[in-house]
Amino acid sequence: MLTYHTANGGTVEATRRGYEVDLNVKAPNGETIATVTMSTDDAYALLDNLEGAL
After folding, report:
1. Residue 49 has pLDDT above 90, yes or no
2. Rounded to 5 degrees, what are φ and ψ at 44?
3. What is the distance between the alpha carbons of residues 37 and 28, in angstroms, rounded to a whole number?
């Protein structure tokens, strides 16, 4: 599992499940706001795009 920290104190946890990745978006208090399941290729593309936006 990889954990990315957000500017507001939340986190995004990326967990690989075979050919898919679960992204769990959590608020600063630890509450899960959203869970997204996507292919590994889509997850890598998303992370690449986010790095380019920063």
Report:
1. no
2. -60, -40
3. 21
Domain enclosing residue 31, as ranges: 2-53
Query: What is the DSSP track for 24-54?
Result: EEE-TTS-EEEEEEEEHHHHHHHHHHHHHH-
How, if at all, do strands 20-26 and 32-39 pair?
A: antiparallel
Please report the pLDDT score of residue 11 as a whole number.
95
If one counts the domains in the chain, the total is: 1
CA-CA distances (angstroms) from residue 1 to 49, 52, 53, 54?
A: 20, 22, 23, 22
CA 31 to chain centre: 14
Confidence of residue 54 (pLDDT cuts 50, 70, 90): low
